[in-house]
Amino acid sequence: MNSLNRRTFLKTTSVVAAGFALGTRSWAQVVGANSDLRVAVVGVNGRGVSHIGSLMAIKGVRVVAICDADTAVMEKLKARKDQKSGATPYANLRTYVDLRELLAASDIDAITIATPNHLHALQAIWAVEAGKDVYVEKPVSHNVWEGRQLVAATSKFNRVVQAGTQIRSGSGLQEAVAWVQAGNLGKITVARGFCYKRRDSIGKTEGPQKIPDTVNYDLWAGPAPLDPLRRARLHYDWHWLHVTGNGDVGNQGIHQMDVARWFLGEKGLPRSTLSIGGRLGYIDDADTPNTQVVIHDYATAPLVFEVRGLPSKTGAIGREAMDNYRDVRVGNVIDCEGGSVVTTAYFTATAYDKAGKVVKEFKGSDRHMQNFVDVVRSRKTAELYGPIEEGHISSALCHLGNISHVLGQGTAPGVLQERIKGNAPLVEANGRMEEHLRANGVDSARTPLTLGVPLTLAPNNVERFVGEFAAQANPLLTRAYRAPHVVKAYAAEQRAT
What's the confidence (pLDDT) of residue 494? Predict the structure, then answer.
């Protein structure tokens, strides 16, 4: 067990198991929690630092501990000075390398999770098992099956679990969604999301790379295989490998697909999914697409999401460095019969009529962490802005697109166009993507795009595939877990008939 010896492991797991009994308690009944809410932040190399700032700004909340598999990351944070006062506000935070030891601490009421994607669901499940409430970053899972287990475990242990889909907390977007669903622009015809965000090559290495001495690699890898590191940088670039990340479709894409699905009012998975894309313009150590279109077929209207990591054209810099779609680089365009709603920032939106005239503007701000704290105190889970069920479904949209891609194959442009010709939104999006690639010197005849397999979902929100590619696709709804980092089955097995 590497750094965790058998005695410590047995002690820790016994305390975590004892935490099951806390599952029916309210926050106010947890020992010592009648004053401040005591929170630990797990994963502090990026987004977790923002969690700390948000939590520290909320009255009655104390950040008491941090946890990270890299001790250097924690020491760097603890030494950080406030720019104005020169103080070190994080110096006294307790530190943990192993989450299981943190969860055994009786003086921690809740945790927030900002670790790599492949750890999200497992760590959140461990936390609810131990009686902790949880704020978990997006995507809430690395695959569809474990996301459903997290939803089921949240219910079983009666915990508050907020998904990090913070756009849902903005009053402006809440108003915009209600306004569109009230029919003010007629029916939605297509809901689009975009991530046109520069993603450079992560480089090409030769052979295994050294794991930093400060990293407990066993804990960092968690459920994933304990394979040698085969990229130059351990941190962040995990996003661009399927074994630990989900590419930009599961990094930025979950936000925009969540917003698009929110506008559509769709509560479950789509009827079918198809991906077109690839890792194009360079060859590096990553394997997720940097250029991709995913279309989800919903009854209300199609949901289309686009990824572009290359610039607008070879050598482009400054304002023209990235493409845009109707001035959107990262955001949404919700087209309706009588106009459209456009978002270019997380908490604002603008409605236009068919002539392009502004009809209405919507503004709000990020209230997500405050909402989490409020619900932890009230136990009124219906008031969560990012309930775990919604986070699971939107995370699953990312996974469906990636499954389609992984099972696909490079397809000549003419053949690809012939196969998608009956799908007007996909034809249009693919046409623009082809133009974008040509502007970057990518010849799809020589480096063909991967046409994913069309995936059909079982009816009645059964999270399984049916049809031609079900046998290949269904195993990819989950993964092989590496003991002891195993996600337990809490949801009834769903089998398509």
Answer: 60
